[in-house]
Amino acid sequence: MTAQRPLDGRAAIVTGASRGIGRSIADELAGAGAHVCVTARDAHDVGEAVAALRARGADAIGVPGDVADPAHLWEVTDRAMTAYGRVDIVVNNAATNQPYGPLMDADPDAWRTAFAVNVEAPLRLVQCAWRAWMSEHGGAVVNVCTEGATHVGPNIGAYNTSKAALLHLTAQLAGELGPLVRVNSVSPGLVRTEMARFVWERAEETVAAGLPTGRIGEPVDVARAVRWLVSDDAEWITGTDLLVDGGTRVRAASPTGDAQAVQRQLRYHFPGA
Predict the structure, then answer these.
(1) Which of 28, 86, 209, 269 is the most exposed place for a label (fewest CB within 10 A)?
(2) Is the peptide bond before 179 cis (omega within 30 degrees of 0)?
(3) Cis before 99? omega within 30
(4) Which of 125, 270, 251 is nearest to 189 (CA)?
């Protein structure tokens, strides 16, 4: 007899799930028994992610599109409901790091896009899932934020500001949607993703040496945290942000030389998706 898995019979939507953290989250949820609906902008990448999930025996579908488009979010929800008859889990992972640079030079359209993707889209998708299923049956939501959301730093002010807003949105939704729906977030530190390549590729060994864990993160480190938060093992946890940062905030207090410069950069990084 097959052992019961923690997410057997549940259905999940994961955004930005064609690569990096999002793809690893989809894989972890599927491995725990969930049906998974993945979405990302590139149709080819979505197809590859779905094929990989199905190859390991998962029940997965893909819906390519832009999370900044409200119609796409309704389509994703409808497709998941049609395929699985339920939406128990929402993971808002899709994000943009533009505009990059000083805020005084930020293009207003790019600024609005950052908030449309990083803040408005998560809210809209939760609204969709709430109206389609969660308002009557409950569920769990996890928003992927960043360790940098509580800091200031050069060039990624728009990204970190939008993620700070997402942190507050997480707490607000947790208060409004309980007890039926639990809403939490994870805040990764430096993770080996394409979006964060400009940080880790230049000085990975130096950065890793400054962390108590001795290495930078991998997408699966974040995915495992998400899998736990949406499971019944975390049923008394809502409105919280879980740091998955390798000890970034408690790293050695006085690195020297080049390590000190790298550690200053690390505090202002963004993890990517």
Answers:
(1) 209
(2) yes
(3) yes
(4) 270
| Nearest residue to 96 via CA among 159, 163, 15, 168 | 159
- Tell me the C-alpha distance between 14 and 204, whole Å: 29
Kindly give the confidence (pLDDT) of every residue in the chain, 273 residues in length, as a single tens digit, with 9 standing for 90 and above.
Answer: 567 999 999 999 999 999 999 999 999 999 999 999 999 999 999 999 999 999 999 999 999 999 999 999 999 999 999 999 999 999 999 999 899 999 999 999 999 999 999 999 999 999 999 999 999 999 999 999 999 898 887 888 999 999 999 999 999 999 999 999 999 999 999 898 877 777 778 878 888 888 899 999 999 999 999 999 999 999 999 999 999 999 988 875 535 434 455 455 554 443 433
d(CA 236, CA 216): 30
pTM of the model: 0.91
